[in-house]
């Protein structure tokens, strides 16, 4: 699978509108056959930084970057950014999320 993490630094005037700006791109990407996940988070240290964690099947990454919604996003998003996004993109073994081996949490009933 391809695991990709991208950090986006928004201009202050775009920070509160960022998730709305990427909404169509997010929805279209999540609907792609090879997409495993496409999840946005906001930095707890920098309110103008958004982190995208995405994963694709081995066959799904290339069609993603060739899609119309990807090209549209690459043209639309720079207006809201203060810097070029930073990315880590690697092909890794696995097919999705696994439990962390170093920690075990036994579920407790709600309300306990």
Automatic annotation (TrEMBL):
Organism: Auraticoccus monumenti
Gene3D superfamilies in UniProt: 3.30.70.100
Lineage of producing organism: Bacteria, Bacillati, Actinomycetota, Actinomycetes, Propionibacteriales
A molecular function (GO) term: monooxygenase activity
Domain ABM: 1-75
One Pfam family hit: ABM
InterPro entries from the UniProt entry: ABM_dom (IPR007138), AI-2_Isomerase_LsrG (IPR050744), Dimeric_a/b-barrel (IPR011008)
Domain of life: Bacteria
PANTHER family noted in UniProt: ABM DOMAIN-CONTAINING PROTEIN (PTHR33336:SF3), QUINOL MONOOXYGENASE YGIN-RELATED (PTHR33336)
Assigned keywords, A-Z: Monooxygenase, Oxidoreductase
Protein name: Quinol monooxygenase YgiN
């Amino acid at each position: 699978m391809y695991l990709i993490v991208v950090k986006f630094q928004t201009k202050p005037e775009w920070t509160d509108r960022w998730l709305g700006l990427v909404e169509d791109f997010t929805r279209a990407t999540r609907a792609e056959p090879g997409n495993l996940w496409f999840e946005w988070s906001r930095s707890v240290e920098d309110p103008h930084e958004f982190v995208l964690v995405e994963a694709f099947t081995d066959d799904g990454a290339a069609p993603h970057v060739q899609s119309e919604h990807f090209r549209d996003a690459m043209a639309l998003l720079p207006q809201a950014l203060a810097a070029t996004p930073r990315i880590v993109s690697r092909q890794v073994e696995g097919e999705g999320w696994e439990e962390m081996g170093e920690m075990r949490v036994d579920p407790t009933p709600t309300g306990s």
